[in-house]
């Protein structure tokens, strides 16, 4: 029975149309800070891959499929890069459309008043390895208004694939650096 399962999995994987995407180059600061928050073991389903585009959106668009816990960056030629993400807890989940209004490396974190009310122990902090926004943040706006939602790195990589955030889209730090390097300010974001 076990051999049949292994052969079946191998055949399924042989039919997949995805390939790995190399890690981006890192600055000395990135390498130093990221070494302090090492990646946890995670399900390979949430690794960064180039795949056939399932979104049917225009190249350059970011699509977050919250139920799949996947973020897709649509590429030309019917391809996309798929990244595993953590999404908003059911009570705090967010869906809609936005644009990247701003990008930041190792951003400072200023939790909104609603979050501080729920968790009085949280406080503002400068960018760095223990900051919950991680290595990069993409700030989302809707018609020029800050949504207060972000696509950002994390200091809890073991939670990728879960619904645990206060609505933001969390990525492994190496993945958010890769995405940050690929998308400009003004890029469209669709969260489904």
Automatic annotation (TrEMBL):
The keyword Glycosyltransferase applies. The active site is at 152 (proton donor/acceptor), 168 (nucleophile). The keyword Cell wall biogenesis/degradation applies. One of its GO terms (cellular component) is extracellular region. One of its GO terms (molecular function) is glycosyltransferase activity. Keywords: Cell shape, Cell wall biogenesis/degradation, Glycosyltransferase, Hydrolase, Peptidoglycan synthesis, Transferase. Pathway: Cell wall biogenesis; peptidoglycan biosynthesis. PROSITE patterns: LD_TPASE, PROKAR_LIPOPROTEIN. Pfam families: YkuD. GO terms for biological process: cell wall organization; peptidoglycan-protein cross-linking; regulation of cell shape. It comes from the Bacteria. InterPro entries: LD-transpeptidase (IPR050979), LD_TPept_cat_dom (IPR005490), Transpep_catalytic_dom (IPR038063). Residues 60-192 form the L,D-TPase catalytic domain. PANTHER family: L,D-TRANSPEPTIDASE, L,D-TRANSPEPTIDASE ERFK_SRFK-RELATED. Belongs to the YkuD family. This is ErfK/YbiS/YcfS/YnhG family protein. It comes from Methylobacterium oryzae CBMB20.
């Amino acid at each position: 029975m076990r051999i049949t399962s292994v052969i079946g999995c191998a055949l399924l994987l042989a039919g997949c149309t995805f390939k790995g995407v190399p890690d981006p180059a890192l600055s000395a600061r990135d390498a130093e800070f990221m070494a302090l928050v090492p990646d946890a073991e995670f399900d390979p389903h949430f690794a960064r891959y180039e795949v056939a585009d399932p979104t049917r959106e225009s190249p350059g668009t970011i699509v977050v499929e919250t139920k799949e816990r996947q973020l897709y960056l649509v590429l030309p030629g019917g391809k996309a890069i798929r990244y595993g993400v953590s999404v908003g807890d059911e009570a705090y989940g967010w869906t809609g459309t936005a644009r990247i209004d701003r990008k930041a490396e190792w951003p400072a974190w200023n939790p909104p008043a609603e979050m501080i009310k729920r968790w009085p122990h949280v406080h503002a902090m400068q960018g760095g390895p223990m900051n919950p926004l991680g290595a990069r943040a993409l700030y989302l706006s809707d018609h020029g208004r800050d949504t207060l939602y972000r696509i950002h790195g994390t200091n809890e990589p073991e939670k990728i694939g879960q619904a645990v955030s206060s609505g933001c889209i969390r990525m492994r730090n190496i993945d958010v650096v890769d995405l940050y390097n690929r998308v400009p300010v003004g890029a469209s974001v669709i969260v489904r």
